[in-house]
Amino acid sequence: MCGIVGATAKRPVSEILLAGLHSLEYRGYDSAGVALLHNDELFVSKHQGKVAILEAALQKQPSPSHIGIAHTRWATHGVPSAENAHPHVSNNRVAIVHNGIIENHDQLRKGLQAQGFEFVSQTDSEVIVHLLSVELHKGSDLDSALGAVVEQLDGAYAIAAIDIAHPDRIAAARHGSPLVLGIGFGEYFVASDPLALRQVTNRFIYLEEGDRVSITPDHYQIWDKTAASVTRPVVELKDKLDQASKGDFDHFMLKEIYEQPRVLAETTSFAGLPTVDESIFGANASEIFDRVDAIQIVACGTSYHAGMVAKYWFESHLGMPCNVEVASEFRYRLRAKRPNTLLLTISQSGETADSLAALRDAAPDEFLASLVIANVDNSALVRESDLVFLTQAGPEIGVASTKAFTTQLVGVLILLLAFGRRKGMDSGFQAQLLQALRTLPDDVEAVLVQRARIEAVSERFIQKHHALFLGRGVYYPIALEGSLKLKEISYIHAEAYPAGELKHGPLALVDEEMPVIAVAPNDELLEKLRSNLEEVRSRGGELYVFAPQEANFESSDRVHVINMPHCDAITSPITYTVALQLLSYYVAIQKGTDVDKPRNLAKSVTVE
Ligand code: F6R
Fold it and tell me: pTM (2 decimals)?
């Protein structure tokens, strides 16, 4: 997704802006640009492609400028190109960068064209800079001009603007897209993500919906949506910077897969087991949990798959009704009220536009309370939910989610224990679950030991264009997650089905060219799954079976068995996931794709 960095300081800022853009690269983008002010002149450089191209261009013309704004663009309106890249400029005096989508851009554009403005890009964002020009022309200062502009915008935005008549000032505003203010010594910054500024500060103000801010090197001021001057709390971030480096690994994704034993253990110990310390969810969590009879989960992508697993767990182990729905559907349909139902959102970033909109769209009397399982503290979902469980995965840089998913599942298991206490969970099962959580890091280590075997079978996917994943019961969402990972990073078209559905349609796809990946734990559905796999074998399909030794699958010419460690049934969806992550990773390596930044995808989807 798009990224914003802005800086006003008493020293040159172009290095700060570039470093900021580099740290936002993992989020996915197609072009990058910067606007710098110096000696009453606006200097703009923007390029399609990597930040490194922009960097090389700036090295040829180093700028001593003390103020600038920069952007990485992920195309929504208009193709990836230098013209469509930000910053956009009007009248050679004012420049803006924008994240989000301006829904009424067409109508605004027509009005501006009628006033004689010429548009050089196909973007929705360009209207903002010309509107700003109009307001500045009327004699407004930059801050009030931006205030007047945002009044005219429908949609979502985070905007930062500079103007040659205000040589040390950045004006910025947010509505629907994240924006933080970074506090330095004799310098202030804005960015769409604090990660972009961690090289220069660890002190941030998270701007709220409708806030505007003005920064100079010595001063900042914030106005809320009613234009009243407000103060917002300063948050000091304590996470370590080195987590954002690849270390000895070739890719962030592999590093993050390997971090799982540690972060799963940290997420478990965060809950203070054996008795869940419910204060970690929020001060009044116990009181709210006492009243919960059912759960509605809303999430997107991989986090949605975590929600699907949660449904199996809540209903089968607690008999607690649990629905799960993708946020982009949930937010747009009429819904029945659910008395005593907890609205549970699940999100790695805590900023996903659809999940956030679903939370905001829920009527005050529709649900009992809201809880988010998120990985990023201070993110919008965290700030706006009644209760929070923070997974301890640490920054996830690879676009394809790995450790965030498995720690989300641990978060769900902690919640299961919290509700188990109230819903009469069998004490034997509770002891088993606690023991399974204790041994989970070792179980995952045992899967990582299979790396070489998984890497070897991945070679067989080089020429493949399609793949089918099968699972049954709680392993169906794990099959879905495996297929999502494979398609995201290897670009192989992959589908997942509950194995029992095979003969109702997808079996027609199976021939010698179709690899079929089966998640086959030794559980009560194993024999049913075995029959499904026979159906594949007798049609010439090639099988990749992830199964423990006790399941008695034998490798042959067209059957490749990947041995899974013996581990507890309750946590084994997590261990099987790790094996499928490794498979996708190595297939992507064989295919030569950009594993950490797959094409067309963004890490944090802050637009609809
Ligand atoms: C897939 C992936 C995405 C995200 C989805 C939701 O690997 O990462 O499907 O899971 O965009 O993002 P969050 O969890 O940040 O709400």
Answer: 0.82
